[in-house]
Amino acid sequence: MFDLIIRSMTQRKMRTTLTIFGIALGIFAVVVMGGMSEHMTLTVDKSLKLLANNIQVEPDGTLGGLERLMNQKSDRSKECQE
Predict the structure, then answer these.
(1) Domain count, the chain
(2) pLDDT tens digits, residue range 55-71?
(3) What whole-number distance in Å separates Cα of residue 32 and Cα of residue 53?
């Protein structure tokens, strides 16, 4: 059986080369994707740690302070009109 495998590999060199190249490329792709996934996970974790201290809870309906900003602008416009 082993003799048949060796003989087939030596007779069909192009197919053997392409098969080995395909297997190596597949292993390389899996390793790179795993590394990219791990890097992305670390980046997201670091970002969440940085933002965790800056989370603000606003009253219902303020849209993250946008309403307060709009009220300040309208107050300023009223002052300019007077």
Answers:
(1) 1
(2) 666 666 656 556 666 66
(3) 33
